[in-house]
Amino acid sequence: MAGAFDFVPAIAALPLLAFVVSLFAGQYMPKRGAEAGILATAGSLVLSIWTALTVAGITGSATSYNENLYTWVAGVADGAVTLRLGVLVDPLTALMLVIVSLIALLVHVFSLGYMNDEGETGLPRYYAGLGLFTASMLAFVFSNNLLMAFMFFELVGLCSYLLIGFWFREDGPPSAAKKAFLVTRFGDYFFLIGVVGVFATFGTGLFAPITEGGTVVAESFPQMAEHALEDGESFFGYSAQTWITILGMLVLGGVVGKSAQFPLHTWLPDAMEGPTPVSALIHAATMVAAGVYLVARMYGFYLLSPTALAVIALIGGFTALFAATMGVVKQELKQVLAYSTISQYGYMMLALGSGGYVAAVFHLTTHAIFKALLFLGAGSVIIAMHHNENMWDMGGLKDRMPVTYWTFLSGSLALAGIVPFAGFWSKDEVLFEALIHGFGSTGTLGTMFLVAYAMGLLAVFFTGFYTFRMVYLTFHGDARTDVARDPEPVGWNVKGPLSVLGIGAATVGLINMKPIADLTGLHIDFLHKWLLGPEEGGWPALTSTGLHHYEELMHNVAGIDPAYPLGETTTLLVSALVSLSLALAGVLVARSLYNEPEPVEHTDKLGGAKTLLMHNYYQDEYQVWLAQGVTVPLARAADKFDQGVVDGVVNGISSVSLFTGSRFRRIQSGVVTNYAALMTLSLVLLLVVFVVLGGGV
Amino acid sequence: MAIQTQYFLLLSAAVFCIGVYGILTRRNALVFLMSVELMLNAANINLVAFSFHHGNLTGQVFSLFTMALAAAEVAIGIGIVLVLYRNFEDIDVTKAATMRW
Amino acid sequence: MTTRPRLATDVNYVNGLAALALFAVMGYVFMTSELGMPAGFADGSITASIGYAMFDMLDQAAIEAEGFLVAFIVIALVLDAALDGAVMLARREDDESVVAAITDGGRPLSGRESDGADAETATDDVTGGDD
Amino acid sequence: MPVAGPIEALLAVTLVGALAVFLAPDEWAGKLATAISLVPVAVSAWMYTAFDGAGNALLGGDLAFESTIGWVQLGRYELAYHVGLDGISMPLLLLTTVLTTLALVSSWTPIDERQSQFYGLMLLMEASLIGVFSALDFFMWLVFWEAVLIPMYFLIGVWGGPRRKYAAIKFFVYTNVATLIMFVGFMALVFGLGDSISTFDMPEIAQALRAGGNLSAVAGIQPANLSLIAFTLMFAGFAVKVPVFPVHTWLPDAHVEAPTPVSVMLAGVLLKMGTYALLRFNFTMLREVAEANAAIIVAFGVLSIIYGAMLALAQQDLKRIVAYSSISSMGYVIVGLVAFTPHGFGGATFQMISHGLISGLMFMTVGVIYNETHTRMVGDISGIADRMPWAVGIFVAAAFGYMGLPFMAGFAAEYLIFQGAFASSVIPAAPLVTGVAMFGIVIVAGYLLWAMQRTLFGEYSLATDYDVSRAPVHDVAPLVVLLALVIVLGVRPGLVYQMIQDAVNPLLDTALQGGVALW
Fold this sequence. Notes:
The complex is a heterotetramer of chains A (697), B (101), C (131) and D (519). Chain B has 101 residues and is mostly helical.
């Protein structure tokens, strides 16, 4: 009987079909290809939900699935690895599939309002891009090995490029698209080395072992690494520990690029040049999550390297704070959201780095919902404002577009981390995990976690501040421009997705209310249980991607242990209260500064810091300098060297031969006498040589 | 008592070198032709000498052919000299220094 | 023709040294070589033998030789051709267009243009004189 | 064994076809040549399906479509007409026939004078290329190898750009001198082998060399040094054709001056002759020397990758950009070959095919844009995406293919090369070296994205006096075919990789010892 797992490839195949249909037939369709995309993503959503239900054990017996389906390159000789594409479904995959296909569907619907109703041209191209993106992203999610993940990782990068550059007639979008691809490519370069390295080291890139009737037929690379570590093997002249760290850091390069972490975060704010639904889908909810998802996917590998974990935590914590401070001074709506996205992914990295696997996945889920909501809300505002994104030109939109306002507010509360909205639960858990592991882990690792935690905690305040600065400037006060006084109305296709997500942002946090669970003893931490799996047997035994296994590794290999300085419950409450009060403080400061009919800019009070923040800490400047101030002159110098020296030698050789030729030509005077003399002399010489050599040997 | 072969060779070398000398030092095309004639005859001397040396008449027959060829060569040579004179108003071989004029 | 060919008197003696050197080398070689005494001819008429050799009648020749009939014919033809060539080259200027075409590399020279009729007669003459 | 096999048919059709096209009137020479060239495509496609070879041609594998005809006795050596295909040459042959047809179609627009001669020379070149990839007798191989230069010389020198004479002569002299050097090296081996070979048959020579102990001293040079010298000379000779830094400078000049279809053939097939020969001669016959000198060879490869890419970054001419990036891409082949791993060899050979298709596609696309704009300078064109959407779309796809986008042939090739090189036990510090070589994929993205942004996107403007309109169908059709091939091979590399692997694996069968390092 064909179960849900047999249809998993179709989850990606449907949007791929939509891509082809939109590209070639989109111009003949009434909605220019949107129909295909909506149908396909709806189909994907249904299949994803079915898959999730199967994983939950409701609609089938098997709760996980891991098969190689396609041999991409068969290695014939010994030692030649075989590269395959396959499907891995476990609770993490199922969750992510549902998130991605849900948001993709909503964004497709929203696009009807944002793109079709606005009379854009080139829509088949747009929907084709969305379709290809959705397909690649979903395929990335259910990839069962690292190479397949990389391949689709690159494809989503391509789609990101195509969609950011959708308005190619202007100067900005193509440039931003180029930057986005190039910066992520730089990260992917390290990722690719990592992929090659993993295959060369372990001969496989499987995330989870493949079993047949209970016996393992193909081991996964995290497991092999684990064994190698136990056996004290060495690879390429390094100890297993060092080598695993190196590989982990290399793969992390791709993660940092895609998830827009410091220092490769610079592309994401620029990427806001793309259409807003694209920003919602790609640059907030899904593609940017790919990096974090990848770390979660191969978490069993990262747990073997405490160094890599510390780096992930520090990058995450720093990025969370760093990006949040930049979000404080931005004037464009989408820019604020972009920096907020960077910051929030920083939290997820922080969680992963400090051993908070569930927290990271939880925050990934809630963030996908509320950030997609915020972007779509921003899109709605942008439609209303005739594509003016400057918040200082808005104001007072609250009464004129209530659906947008209330949903946007729901998302903002979630983002700021106000109880009981989604963001509170997840962010609190992230910080809590970092805190207890920081105290519990030994040596520098614990210190690193605490440093990262401190940065993350501080960022909570900024998050609350910039979120509500945005809300107040956009929706409250008096309308500051004519457009804001009379905004363009938005249709059902905008309000529908907003409402769905608005409710989601308020409620999705309920899936894992850990503090409540701990306090009351109720077992309502569903996500935790979802990722934990059954105690004995079931999918964790097959895939070894269960939480139990990770906790063992944390304890045994990485030396990460929880510790509760104030007792378990008190620590939990104090942690939650601290972060909540910081968030509220941020909100209140924003309220006091901007919640007035005619708000004024307060950024001047920051003094020198304002310039620094407005210029994004000169991150773009130094990266542009690296490209234009170092690489381009270097290329020019290489070109000069090539033209002058290398080719100069070639031309020099040819001119030497031309010169000697012109000299030798003078012998050819045309005078018979000279020829005769030369002949005679040569004959004499030849004879003398023969005589000397002893006569014709 | 016949004369040793190398003396014939020496004679032919002398005649040949006189011919070569003429070609090298003179510029007059007619003198060239004469010099070439000398060189051909030096070859003839060689042919006859070796014919005698080996007791085989082939060399002598060949020298006859050579004479015939020399005649042909002179005929053409004189013709060329005439053309040369027509084109350059002179028969100085150093004047005709290009293949095409 | 107001001038006539004269012997060039400005002789280049330096080049002549090459000829002397050649003589020295050849002389040295010849005089140091050990050829031994000549074998000489067998009895019989040398002249008659040459005649037989030329006509491939070696069985009648008194002295050893090889047959040269083909060479003889070839030489005859060459001589004939050479004489024709000499005549052609030596033809007067008036009807020289073909000759000029051969000797000047075909480049038309100003003042030496000849009309088509002349060229044709020249061609006829050349072919006609081929005997 | 039948004497007139499919290879003979290919040679006959192209040669007779070339003659027929030479005699045809200019008006329909292009159509005639294209029609004729479809025959080799069909024949080689049939050959692909009927391919029954196994193993490596030089190392005693079973050859497909083999035929041998004795020719002349040259001293001790017997020269023969000997052709046959193995898993390495079959895909290259297919590449040649397909690319020739597409290049012929893409010539219809830009070639507007002396058509019959142009198309005749193109077919002549196809014949020679087929010969190069199928010949197994050294003498015959050399004849074809040199015969390729002649049509190429005229194609650049007659139909080229303003500096065509310089470029054509440079190309000809450079590659010809290289052949001479290579020839000296090979002859040194032949003399060194002495009595152990009696023909110039490449399999016989290769097996004699691989067997070991057959080389004897020549002119006082000991066998080990002799093979080192021969290796160096042959490497130098073939490196020019590839081209490898620092003997690459003929390439950009030739590409810039050559008309589009000629560039396509030059980048698509002619460069592969160099790497094909390297694989057949240096890395098959003198494996131990190659292994001993792997550090130096891989340095040349890595230098070519990075240096070529850096040069491409500095160019303003679209064709020059692609030309320099070809140097970069061919550097990957060198790295793959010298790794001496299954995927290294296989990936390198696969890269020959994939680069042939992708660079051909790239040059054709640039050509289509040039046909409409009459300029190739990045600064002169902007925003043509509006005017010629399909051509631009394909340009973008081709550029991403060049950058190694997954599911396109370039990614498969490059990934396999990296995989092979990383695990190499021959290259010193293989992971590090591979990592450095891979940086090429970042630079290539840099210059192609930059060029695309400047030329394709933004507001429409053009520095020349032409009006850009949609490219004609016969210009775009070859692009579509090539793009489809690139994607098919990217999704299913096994279509050719299977036979490639079968042919390259015997190269690794026996470990040879005793190579002498250069230092």
